[in-house]
Amino acid sequence: MVLSEPEGNNGGNLDAALGYAADGMLVLPVHSVKDGRCSCERIRGPKEHHCRSPGKHPLTLNGLRDASAVKRVVRQWWKDNPHANVAIQTGRSSDLLVVDLDTKRSANGVEQFEALFGSVKEIGCPLVRTGSGGLHLLFSYPSEKKLSSCQGIHGLQIDLRAQDGYVLVPPSANLDGSYRLEEGTFESRGEVPVEILQWILSDANSRDRQRTPQQFEIDPTNERKTLHVISKISKRFIESRDEWMRVCAAAKYEAPSDDVFDAIDQLSSKSEVGNYRGTDDVRRTWDSFNRQTQFDGETTTLGTLISYAKQSGWDPKSDPVWLAMRPQEEVNPASDEIRFYTGPELAKLDTSVAWLVEKVLVAGQPVLQAGPKKSLKTNTLIDLVCSLGSGTPFLGRFEVPEKRRAALMSSESGASTIQETANRIAKAKGFSGVGEIENVLFAFETPLISTAKECEKIHEIIESYRLDVLAIDPTYLTFVIGDSGKNIFQMGQILSPLSRIGQSTGCTIILSHHSRKGVGRDGEPLDLGDESYSGFSEWARQWLYINRREPYDESSPGSHKLWLRYGGSAGHAGLHGIDIEESDPFAESGRQWRLSVSSASEIISSRQRQNEQTNREKTDATIRRRLSQVFEVVKGLPAGETKAVIAAKAGFSHGITDKCLYELERQQLIEVTEVSKSGRQYPGWKLVESDNSDSTRTVSGQSASISQSDNNSLL
């Protein structure tokens, strides 16, 4: 990818980010510089200075862990933050290793590097000039090596950006200036020269390099929370050096910044029993921990600090500063107190079921729709929301007791397809078009749901449009799942906010999802667990599973024979066959929406009848073929011949030949005769003498005209 350098061009930042993502590199939005300050717009503590990493730290909640090459995700980031700088995650995931030559500090990293390896331009790697005037040397990541990001290789002003790191890339800019591509392209990066790689490894192997605070871009929210909780810990509750070290490890894990270190040092100096030995001792202890440190077998986190603060008398529920910093996952800010019900209270609760669709869907419980491609998932959702909005039967069969305000957010089909389909479906329900159904809403994009903040958008949509039902299609363009899809517990954390939103608003949320590859190819109904990824069937309290009864036929694209399996925790369940005819899109009358719904028993009985008919036809064909083959052999032997000779010429066993001869004799096409061989007489068969020509003689091989025992023996 060759980059232009549109400094200050926000559209250029998005275009660049999409270009990097298209090349398979993981992209991350980073704060920009605004009016000489970082866009995070925060003043850190009493020192009253600006952000320590202006225009360099991530915008997203989870920092580097959010890096993505999914174009839809990237577009959404820059739609929400058009001025964001662009960063790329380094390491194996992006096939990118960066040697960072710093010129901002006391020594000049470029001069130091060239003293060792000669001119950087003669190395032949792509070069990026940083805002401060330094250089980034770009290489492919050495797959056989495991390199961690580190600073000050061999004590020089040369850093390494490898695993667990990232770099700003053109056309980003910070307080020092803009990043620009000076030599080559990102695509032209090659392997690290052997002498440079060995030089890096010789330092990495010489000592256990702990990550410094600068190598972790710290989440501002985590840092503020950590500082606030530390300020609430009383020195009286740090009763031993072990407890002091536990607090130190927890703070380092959450936010390894200079300000957090200062707060720990200040807390340590107050402690009378923590064996405080001065700032140098605190620094040595601090540096001994990294973000994977376990203390006494446990990983110390913010929860550790909160525990000590509570022991000190701090009540987080009554602390307005803390409440303002609470994470966004409390979209439905439920009380921290769990409500228990006594038996009499439980008996009085109104838990009656309200039907959205009679005996198919219950109001207020999350729904999972799943099926393979070409199973009309989106079309059936359009039918559903139109039915709910108009109070007409779902799929022309299932009654809707009352009108509901229903919305469909679909980012896969596009506005034109949804409009055309909705009009056809509305006409099938007796309207002139979807324009006559006021209670139904459509959107042609879906939100990204990877954080609680995105779930808040769902909450706002439901409240703003007063929705009773919200269908989101499809799941794979809505959820940023990654490896979480393999873990039911992680998926529970992603999906549970939707359940809470549904409970708090009373809105029924429907997710449309794909089934696993290969599932349903046998034309049988889908069942719970056939959907992709973990956790979805556990999350759903009711379901609509769709599968094709017959494979999709490109020669007849408007004809669909489907299974619809539905059910839920309210005890309802059902299985039906749905036949949908949409007609030829090029027909003069246009496409339509004709439905026929059958019970599963009707479908199964019809299948059995079809199978029996098919088997009969196969049986008849086999019998006719064998009878005709034996008949032709006999016809070719006008003098007659023995069964053994006839069997050999026909290629059948004696048993089958015997039955064929019997049946042909019964049909008066052949007759028994005597065959003379070597002066001896043997029983044989020959063609019946007839006035008709042989060509008019036909063999009857219908299984219905032959007894069952003879029928079986002829097969």
From TrEMBL:
Q: Where in this chain does the record put each DNA primase/polymerase bifunctional N-terminal domain?
A: 17-196
The protein's name in its UniProt record: DNA primase/polymerase bifunctional N-terminal domain-containing protein
Q: Where are the stretches annotated Disordered? A: 686-715
Q: Which SUPFAM superfamilies match?
A: P-loop containing nucleoside triphosphate hydrolases, Prim-pol domain
A Pfam family it matches: AAA_25
Biased composition regions of type Polar residues, renumbered to the chain: 693-715
Q: Which GO terms describe its molecular function?
A: hydrolase activity, acting on acid anhydrides
Q: Coiled coil where?
A: none
